[in-house]
Structure formats: C-alpha cells, structure tokens
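Input sequence (231 aa), recorded before submission:
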Amino acid sequence: MVYIGEGDDISARLSSHSRDDDKAFWERFIAVTNKDMNLTKAHVKYLEGRLITLLKEAKKSKVTNKTDPNFDRLPEADISDMESFLEQLQLVLPVVGVDFFRKVPSSPAGNFVADSAEAPAFTIQHKRKGISATAREIEGEFVVLAGSTGDLKEAASFHERLKNLRDQHLTVGKISKVGDQTFELLEDIAFSSPSAAAVFLFGTSRNGRTDWQVQGKTLNYGEWKEHLLKE
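Predicted structure, token format:
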C-alpha cells in the first residue's frame, strides 16, 4: 500500500498519520525535496498528482489516496520543469528500494519463440504443490505471467516482504484463490529476480536459479545465464 502526500512540515504530517487508523499500514516514508528551495505549492501539488497517476498506471501497489489532485494548472514551462524533476525522481527511487512507479513490462505477443537464446520462457512445475508457472525476463525484471499458479501454504521462512506482497495482490485482485491449496495470477507480476518469483509462488525459501527451467530444454535459469556469459 502506498500513500502520496505533501506538506510544509514533514514531522507534523508523520505525527498526524501515525494517529490515523486508516493509515496504520505504513512502515517507512520517503521524503522528496529540492535543494534550491524553489518548489512552490503549485509545483508540489502537480508532482503529487502526477505521482499518484504514475502509481495507478504501474499497478504495482494499492494506492490509498482517495482523490486525485488537479495537476494541470501550471504554465507550460513549469510543467516541463516538473516532468524533468519526475524523470530524475524515477531514476533515484529504485536505488532506495522504491520501484512502485515502474510499469510491469509487456510480454512479447505473437512472435515469441520459446527456444530463443535471447528471451526464452522459464517454467516451474510442481504437481504436488499445485504450482505451474511460466515467466519471462523482460527489461531487467523477471515477469511471472498471468495464468500461473502458486501454493497458498506459507512456511515460517517465507520472506515477510513477499508475504506482504502476496497479501496485497490478493486484496487488490491481482491473484485469486483456487480452492484451499493454490492461487492463480490474474495478470502478469514483475519481480526483481527469479528467486523472488519462486519464493512468491512456493511460500518458502527457494533458489530461483535452479527452480526455473528453460521451457523445452534441460537447462535451468542459472545454467542459461552462465551459457550467455560464455558467448
């Protein structure tokens, strides 16, 4: 869950949110400012509205803002400056672990070749656990495709961040329960690594480099990567 806000006094804003039951979900905050102190209230409102829009378009998180601020009341030159500011912000935020604004890469359609050395499909099949998943590595992210299934059971070793992500996706409808044992992805979901994707599906610690197999081949993800490096 993500909330975008603006304020002149950050400490006062945080204190207010800490007493608000509707915002009890938050665990950390990211403060964005400008070193030259030349952002006006109108600039900040524009940035707030654009960030909310980007969050909703990316579909990686549940946005808790109840309304979308009006962000089109700026001179054209100022809008250009703020868009440049946003571009820089989108470069910096992933460095501190905030990647909610990046859209899930679109998987290639129609002309995808399963045995391509450059972009193969990867699969996990675990009949007993009800796991049947397909993924592709796209633009630096490991994308598990819609229709894949995972195990609902969660072990004690299940990473808290991925557990929270699974709960969030259940809440917003990106995944749905199938009976009492499994869940299904209703849309593509991007992960930072094959291991993160495998942990999400298994609900326990996994090594994605060995779990994911190149579709139609006897290579796992790790072996495929090593083969690419030798070329």
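Checked by second reader. The longest strand covers residues 131-138.
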